[in-house]
Amino acid sequence: MVQFETIEKERRDYGNFPGEKFIEVSRNKAIQDNGDENSFIQIATGYYNDEEPQYKKRFTVPTDNKAVEHIVEKLPEMFEKEKEEN
What we know:
The protein is built from one helix and four strands.
C-alpha cells in the first residue's frame, strides 16, 4: 500500500470572504511498500468547514525541471490573457 507524506506546505486564503476558500502548494512524497519513493508537487484548492480545511480539487506536478519550468512560464501568460478577455 502506498503511503503519502507531506514534506512542506503553504496555504493562502482567497475569495470574497476571509477563511472561505484556500489554495495550497505542497511538496509531497509517495512511499511504496518496497521503500521506493516518488516526490511530487501538489496544488490543491478547497474550503473551510467549521474552520477545518476540506480539499476539493488537487493537481500534481512531477519534480522535473522541464515540467515545472513550463508551468512557471505559461501560468502568468494564461492569467494575463484571461484578465484581458474579462
